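User: Can you predict the 3D structure for this chain?
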Amino acid sequence: MGTVNKLLNAIDLVNKYTYNGVGLLFAPLTLIAVFEVGMRYLFNRPTIWAWDINLQLFSFIVVFGAGNTLFQGGHVIMDIFINRFSKKTRLKINLAVYVVFFFAMSLILWELTSFAWRSLLLRERVSTLFAPVVYPLKIGIFIGVSLLFLQAVSLFVRDLITYATMSKEGKRR
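Assistant: Here is the predicted structure, written as C-alpha cells:
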C-alpha cells in the first residue's frame, strides 16, 4: 500500500506544481490585455497579436488547472443531493461516476492524441492575421487532459481504498 500511496501523492504533486507554474501566466495575460485596451482605446491602434496570445495563455491556464481543481474538490457537484446519503453511499456514487468519467475521458484522450499529432506534423497555425503556431497549445491540451485523467485515477483509487476499508470494518461488527 505504501507504493500506491507514493504514486497517488506523486500525481497530486504533479498537478499541484503544474497548476502553480501555469498560474504564473496570469501576469502576462493581464499585462497583454491592459496593453491591448490602451492601444485600442487611447491610441486607436489595436494590435493584431494580443487576442491570439491571450487566448492561448488562458487555454493553458484552464486545461492545466483542471487536475488540481479536481483534487481540491473545486468542480461542480450536486451537494444538495449527494449530502443526503451516507458516506458509504456517496463513495459508491463517486466510484460509479468515475467509471463513466474514465470511459468518456478515454475516448477524448484518444481523439486528442491524433488532434495534437496532426497539428504538430502540419506545424499548424491559427487562421488569423497574426497566425501564431497552435500546435504547442494542442499538445498542451492533450497533456492537461491527461493530467486531469491521472488525477481522477488517483481520487478513484483513494475512494476505492476507503470503500474497501469501510466494508471490512462493517463485516467485523
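Residues 2-172 form one domain. The helical segments are 2-23, 26-42, 50-72, 79-82, 87-122, 135-172.
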